[in-house]
Amino acid sequence: MNGTEDRARYAGISEPPDGVPTLTVAELEADPHGVFRAWRPRLPFVGHEVAGFLVLRARDVDLLMRDPRVQATETLYPETRGITEGPLFDIFAHGMLTANGVVHRRRRSPFTRTFATRIIEGLRPRIRSAAESLVRDWMPEGEVDLVERYTALIPAQTIADILGLPRGDIPRFTRLAYEVSRVLSFTFGPEDIPDLEAAAVALQDYVLAMLKARRSPPGDDFLSRFLAEADAVGELTPQEVVIQLVQMIIGGTDTTRVAGAMQVALLLQHPEQWAAVSRDPSLIPAAVVESLRYEPSVGSAGRVAREEIRLDGHVVPAGSLILLSTLSALRDEAVYAHPDTFDIRRTDLPRLHPIFGGGAHRCIGEALARVELEEGLRALMRVAPRLRLTGAMPVLQGHSGIRRIDALRVAA
Ligand code: HEM
């Protein structure tokens, strides 16, 4: 999308075609897997009360991630929610996640080297020993909330180290990141906007203050190198620099904290699979990817249809907002045998895991997330092999964007 002419064509919300229902956020939130299971065999997409259309089938989700007829949403989504300026709007207007074409490449490219698989693999030993020392910290306490004491801290410490943020700032920037990430969940109402905006201002101010401090004198960390490069090349505006770092902090913390908790909960809920991984650590990567399939921490990727899109005889009108539902696609019975069964030994997962999206926007932090999730599990298996659930099995809430988890009560 470029320019006012295009913008006028993209209204965001369109009337659903005949026979396609519009689902409410309330029913989607109440039982997303159940709703998708019911509709997926009947229709390739359903209407969404707020976000246009939800594409349900794995094949369509995969193809549309890479289809030039659909694009990132730029500022269309906040505009449909009545947000037309301000700190939340800026995250969409100046970030890589919602950008297209050369603008997207310009914003993304300074990060690609830092997050390349080879570089991230070099962090593995440090992440491993940090995870083991976290487990040793809380083990003597008996029962703890594993989200707060462990699965939130592994990604938060790692992203703090990569970006050169002081570890003492973790409680502050993670609290703000979790709050701002709610804007992608479609569950907030107009009454929540002031709180979300306050968190977005505070997070942007925090990054701005860090940047000022880092410019003089520069260190040898990622942030100093990134700033030197950004200053030298002059390709990113000061506001773009801030917003890319905000997106890194959000993407690098909330997603992986939720996934880290859910994989532990799922394995503990299936004790024979926990025992198998504990006996044979070579099963750890398979346990991580199956957990990401069974209960993904990100439920969807947002797009806009530049043109009419025909799926299995039904038409998504041009100009519509679309949610490509990874949550639905990852349980598609056309791809996965017994999709509602958690099975770390399944062999039908695609090599490129769909949870990390596809095409130009495929997750930049995939290699990092995998290392964090694998090492988080390995440290528990090594140091706390008798871990057990002491509270209820947590429910991963949400049907889109970054999903939410409350607590995971365990004892070692
Ligand atoms: C389990 C953990 C993670 C999951 C499930 C996940 C999922 C995703 C998905 C589905 C996308 C594509 C969104 C789209 O196409 O609209 C994405 C993009 C992105 N992710 Fe992740 N992510 C995870 C971890 C991370 C980490 C650790 C980082 C930070 C280092 C990160 C940073 C980003 C960024 C910056 C983008 C935007 C890329 C772009 O637009 O070019 N993510 N992620």
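The chain has one domain: 3-411.
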